[in-house]
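Hello forum,

I keep getting stuck at the same step: I have a sequence, I want structure tokens, and every attempt I make locally crashes halfway through. Rather than fight my setup again tonight, could one of you with a working pipeline run this one for me? It's a single chain of 330 residues.
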Amino acid sequence: MDTQNPSAPPRAQSAPADNPTRTRRHGGGITHDNTRHTTRFVVIGNHLVQHKELSLLAIGLSCHLQSLPTGAGADIKTLTARFPEGPTRIAAALRELETHGYLRRERHRTTTGRIVSRTVSCNQPHTATHREPADTGGRPDRRPTPRSSTEPTAPPRKPRPAEQPSAPPEQAPPPHPHSTTPAGTGTRTTPRPRKALPAVPQPSCTAPALLQQATDLLTTLRRHDPRLLLSTPDTAHLAPGVAAWLERDVAPTAVRHALTTDLPDDPLRRPAALLAHRLTAQLPYPPPFKAPAGPPPPRYEVRNCDGCDRGFRASETEDRCRDCRTAAHP
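Reply #2:
Ran it on my machine without issues. Output:
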């Protein structure tokens, strides 16, 4: 009983002062009441939320950006409308995240040639100069380390005799003036062939005045609907169809009404094709045949009646008016 246990501490030991993050055992510090998330959550690394150089606003803003779905607005104007902070503070926080590698701003060119800016939120810093190690929970980090430039690399494999080129490669032909070569690719892409427009009715009379009237009517359609802006080839293709309507005694206002009424609300991808379809499907029936009118009756000069001296129109053989001739020959 008088033998003391050499492994028992002689007195209670306190937490070392050089580790302030260790949980205190005498009622102080923080405790956690955690509930496991199953939906609507995002994983945030401790290297971000415990970053020693980022401000609290930048850390919170990065957590908000990582929780947004792809395609959501992440510009200064959208974030200012969402949070009470002003645009100056939000812009400064975005610069902090960009400096430490948690944010990238890239510019992309769309298929229409427009340049747009995209914001990329990174859950791991890529270009940060001071990167905090991730919390692995006491387990060793088994991620592969990047290969150093001083490590020896395997020599390149020599091509086999069958793989060696027998003749120098032919030079690529010059690019077509209408072909486009996207940046970063070595292949050419040719534009899609333009679809041919549907056929339109042809007039029986191809007088230049009639075709010019039809062309003028087509060029004024954009005043009624801006989507009906036609190119020069499309106008030349549709002009005979409009002329076929005009030669059937259809007024220009009626032709314009038939082409611009009840257009679809969706964007018109091919307005010329829609007009060609209407010119063919709604072509009116030819008007009934009319016999050509005879020559107009002759118009005589005014003469004075020899009986009553009243003016009347008659040929030179008649010297009296109708009343005088009736009275003389009852």
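The chain has a mean pLDDT of 77. If your local run keeps crashing, start a new thread with the error log.
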